[in-house]
Amino acid sequence: MSLLKTLLVGRPDGIRARLLGRDKKSAPSPPPSSPRPAPAALAPEPAEKALGLRKEAPKDVTPPDGYEVVLHKDALAEGQIIEVIIGGTAIAVARVHGQHHAIANTCPHAGGPLGDGKLNGSVVSCPYHGWKFDVTDGSCQTNGTARVKTFDVKVVGDAVCVQM
Ligand code: FES
Question: Is the pLDDT of residue 48 over 80?
Answer without folding.
Answer: no
